[in-house]
């Protein structure tokens, strides 16, 4: 009987291939099967980050999803199908690496495969650089220090929830800004915390930028932008 | 006139040399000056992680601190002295890399050097794998997902502050457990969140372990342990 393969969740970081860890690179090269999430056009941000290291001859498993026009059920069906395909490879003894933007367990879709395959096969997870750490590095400012607490929130939350959570923390990172930025800015303004906030756009990519809140509001920012705020200077 | 060197804050991750990024490794090899925090005995966790890549001939700048017996003022004096030494090298055009456990800006002491040297010299920060991501990977469980918020807290906070913050969040990571674990456990117990919590000890090291809360309480855990809790299963 063949020993089953291992399912690897590989964090590939925020976008810069140099922000991949040595461990993720080694496993990417070693695994015969590589799965990656893709949009309806077949583009995969996670695959693009490590494309130079994916050698010909790998078995690739695209996980194509269309949350926006086909909804959550369709996406879950895509994970079911990918889990079945990966289970086949794992059962035949082939290790499989799932590429994950950022960190696999920090707002990542890897957890859908984890819950479908853990228990049935060996699993190992390689942590990745999160968007929070990447954005702070670009802005060169502390995320959180000493006895402060840090709260990480998606900007998609309702205004009153955002307000309560931000009022109760010393430091915060607000993710997924996009069209939610004016709501977040209004909350910070009422809390007297608008001035020190920075918005980081496309961290880890060549066109990364750091904007003040007024600058960000004026030009608008993409969905994958992140705001950092901290009570201390 | 010589162009000044760049100050690099290099995140080296939680302890496993393989969790260093390609970028941190490249800069570590390229910089002629390497600084690292050390305890009073001269041991440096950050240096130990990357020791195999520090070639002879580097100028090394140990930053020896003794918070415990000599207090905060003495530690700040150590940063003043290190900043002076590094400023000398930077002014003469030598790039200097400061090694940082985990991520330089996530509860890191790098910010003391950043505030002393930023503005005077070019600064670049290489983000690292945080203890939160490393511990979640070891435990193979999601930190946070979808529209949940994540709160990161030091266990050193007073019991009522811990309780209020943990009651208000879907997911949490509590750091620096050590002798504060019974206090954290009591808070989680009252909130009905003790059952799903896990404690990760020495993530990224060979003897890393995942414990339930009762196991952790029974055997005690070191200061650098981390608790993960999440409302969802």
TrEMBL record, chains A, B:
Pathway: Cofactor biosynthesis; adenosylcobalamin biosynthesis. GO terms for biological process: cobalamin biosynthetic process; methylation. Residues 6-212 form the Tetrapyrrole methylase domain. Keywords: Cobalamin biosynthesis, Methyltransferase, S-adenosyl-L-methionine, Transferase. It comes from the Bacteria. GO terms for molecular function: precorrin-2 C20-methyltransferase activity. The keyword ATP-binding does not apply. Gene3D superfamilies: Cobalt-precorrin-4 Transmethylase, Domain 1, Methyltransferase, Cobalt-precorrin-4 Transmethylase, Domain 2. Pfam families: TP_methylase (PF00590). Belongs to the precorrin methyltransferase family. This is Cobalt-precorrin-2 C20-methyltransferase. It comes from Caenispirillum salinarum AK4.
């Amino acid at each position: 009987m063949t020993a089953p393969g291992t399912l690897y969740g590989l964090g590939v970081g925020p976008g810069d291939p140099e922000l991949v860890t040595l461990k993720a690179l080694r496993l990417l090269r070693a695994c015969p099967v590589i799965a990656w999430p893709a949009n309806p056009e077949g583009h995969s941000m996670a695959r693009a980050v490590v494309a130079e290291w994916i050698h010909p001859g790998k078995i690739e498993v695209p996980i194509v999803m269309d949350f926006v026009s086909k909804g959550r059920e369709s996406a879950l069906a895509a994970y079911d199908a990918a889990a079945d395909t990966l289970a086949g490879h794992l059962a035949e003894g082939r290790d499989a690496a799932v590429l994950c933007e950022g960190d696999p367990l920090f707002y990542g879709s890897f957890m859908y495969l984890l819950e479908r395959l853990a228990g049935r096969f060996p699993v190992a997870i390689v942590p990745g650089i999160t968007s929070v750490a990447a954005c702070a590095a670009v802005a060169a400012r502390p995320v959180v220090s000493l006895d402060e607490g840090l709260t990480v929130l998606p900007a998609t939350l309702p205004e009153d929830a955002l307000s309560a959570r931000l009022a109760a923390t010393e430091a915060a990172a607000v993710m997924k800004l996009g069209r939610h930025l004016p709501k977040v800015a209004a909350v910070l303004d009422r809390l007297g915390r608008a001035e020190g906030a920075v918005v980081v756009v496309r961290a880890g990519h060549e066109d990364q930028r750091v904007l003040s809140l007024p600058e960000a509001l004026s030009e608008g920012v993409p969905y994958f932008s992140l705001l950092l705020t901290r009570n201390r200077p």
